[in-house]
Structure formats: structure tokens, C-alpha cells
Amino acid sequence: MTTNMAAGTQAGVTGRRAEGAGTTLRMRAVSRSFGAVRALDNLSLEVAPGELVALLGPSGCGKTTALRIVAGFEYADSGTVTVDGKDISPVPAAKRDMGMVFQSYSLFPNMTAQDNVGFGLRMRKQSASSRSKRAAELLDMVGLSAQARQYPHQLSGGQQQRVALARALAIEPSVLLLDEPLSALDAKVRLQLREQIRSLQQRLGTTTLFVTHDQEEALSISDRVGVMKDGRLEQIATPAELYERPATTFVAEFVGTMNRIPGSYQGMDGVMVLGSVVPVHGGRPDDLAGEIDVLVRPEGLTIQATPGGNGIVTERTFLGSLTRITVLLSGDVSVKVDKTSAAATDLVPGASVQVGVVGGEPVGVTARH
Question: How do strand 25-34 and strand 259-265 relate by DSSP bridges?
């Protein structure tokens, strides 16, 4: 399956970073197999100094394996991992100067929050006074000064995860690794903590690799997002580029919501879909022949209640300022259309509607299933 949507690039890094801050992390042609399963397949990735890159993908795509290889908890069958140009493959995990935050909080239950934060400094033989000072600074950064003397069982899940984050940052790591650190938290706490992680990461300029299966999380927190499938990077790009110009059909349909609507080529003018001729991203692809589907986001479609329209509303989902309308078109094609809630009052199940494509907006195309 191919698509003609524009490819992402390694360029386009955004976000505030102090000049010269952070380190460069590179993975070059890294492969890893577990028996017959190819977890990573020639993966190459570069994280710029002070950049936050998220790896996003379905379960089993290799994102956590990549993170564990960087951390030193797994080894690569081939390829290299370098930090500022130095190959760290032979360096044990404990000596890699990396901070790691796991999905499970992994706090020491018999230590207070302050002692947990200062543990890495104690292992580095720092004095009790310097450990105490640094731990207090980090707990203040994450808003837990008042909980410094409390034990993990006395803290909420969100507070425990903030202690884990402070502990990882206390050693001033060259690279911060985050392995789905928010997935065990409720939605409100997850939102608050991801904003705090991003704010701290930008403030400290720490090079960060973040693994998540949550699209909203990846798109909202990252400078760039790498979408993985079967151990490979399908695309790595800024969140906006990833959403607006996905490089492959997999990325288009994995990130956000995407409609597939039957269409036909109309020469150099583009494709005919829902009664309109619209342009294609990058022009007509050479490797597609025969029947095609047109790929359009819900916000790329128009909808209006009208007798004898081309579709029937089957479902509506209130999303706050927007309402998502599901419409059954002829040929048993179901599409989703986003409409402002104030303008969607008459778009109720059973209503006849006319669905079209926003004029002039380029679309993607792919081979018909």
C-alpha cells in the first residue's frame, strides 16, 4: 500500500533550547531480534541537543525496545548508539549518565520522597548536604516541597510519578528517557503532569526520548514525533507536519482520524471525490493504478442537512466545542465529519445530509482495499 502524502524529514526541530545545551543522541542502523521476532529493523534516529522526541506506535512496534537499548537494559544485534559521538554500546546501564522514568513509579517504599530523589546522588558519593539541597530544589520544581518527608504510600499516583521524575533529573543526566510514564494516571493528572514534564524539559534543556502509545500525548509534548511500525520508523516529523502531511498510509490512519472515500483520477486536475475535483498532495503518484481511495480528515469534509442528500447521519458524538458526525454514504461507506457544536443541532441520527470536501484543500490517495 502506498500513499502520495508528503514525507516528513529529520529537520524542522522546534521548541526553546538554550544554545549549546543538551547532548546529541544517535541510533544508527540498530536491529534487535527476539527469536523469530524482529523487534527493531535497521532503526536510525537522531535526537538533537535539548530536543524532546516521542516514539509513537502500536504495541509490539519496537518503541520500548529502542528505549531499552539506549538505556543499556537491552543490547542491539547490530548498529550503534552514540551520545555526543561516543559509542556507548559497551557502557553498562548504570554508567550511561541517563535518567529514566518508568510507567511504574519504581520508588523505594522505605525512603521518603526526598531520599528517593537523592538516591542517585548518594550512589555518586555526594555529601548528605549537597544531596539534601539538590533534592529540595527538584521537589520544589515539581511542586512537592510539602511532601518531602512523606513515604510513597502516603502520596497519590501523580505525586509518586513526579518524585520519580525529580529523581531522574537530580543527577543532571545527559539524556532523559521516559517509558510511558503517564499511562497509569487518570486523565486530569496525566494532562497536568505532561505539561509539567514539557516545561521542566525546556527549562533544563535536557535531551529527551519519550515512548508513548497515546497520540494526543505525543503530539502535544514533543518537538518531533517518530511513528514506528514493525521495528521501523515510518516517519519522523514535527507534530503539525505528521498530522497534515503524513508520509505513508499507515501514518495517515494511525495519527488522528482519517476517512477513506472512493475516488477517481481526473488527469492533472486531481481526483474526483464526493462530486468535486480536488488536488492531491504532491500531484498524482506514479505507483498507483486502478481503484483508489481518497484520504480526508474529518475537518476536511463539509456537511449540511438537506433532503435527498448523499448520506444519512448514523451517529453523533459531542466533543465540547466540536461534534463528530458519522455519516453513511452510498456504497456502505462510513465517514466522520467534524462540525462546531453550535452548528450541528440539526445533524441528528436519521437526518439526510450532503457531505462534500473542503474546496481547494489537497488530499491524500491510496490503493483501494
Answer: unpaired
Residue 321 banded pLDDT, cuts 50, 70, 90: very high
Question: Is a pLDDT exceeding 70 seen at residue 284?
Answer: no
Pairing status of strand 259-265 against strand 292-296: antiparallel
**Counting beta carbons within 10 angstroms of the beta carbon of residue 214, is it exposed (0 to 12), middle (13 to 18) or buried (19 or more)?**
middle
Rounded Cα distance, 351 and 339, in Å = 15
**Per-residue DSSP letters for 177-212?**
EEESTTTTS-HHHHHHHHHHHHHHHHHHT-EEEEEE
Do residues 294 and 329 touch, judged by C-beta distance below 8 A? no
Average pLDDT over residues 225-237: 96
Query: Which cell numbers in the block locate residue 38?
Result: 524482529
Residue-by-residue DSSP string for 78-119: EEEEEETTEE-TTS-GGGS-EEEE-SS----TTS-HHHHHTH
| Better pLDDT: 1 or 307 | 307
Percent of the chain with pLDDT over 70: 92
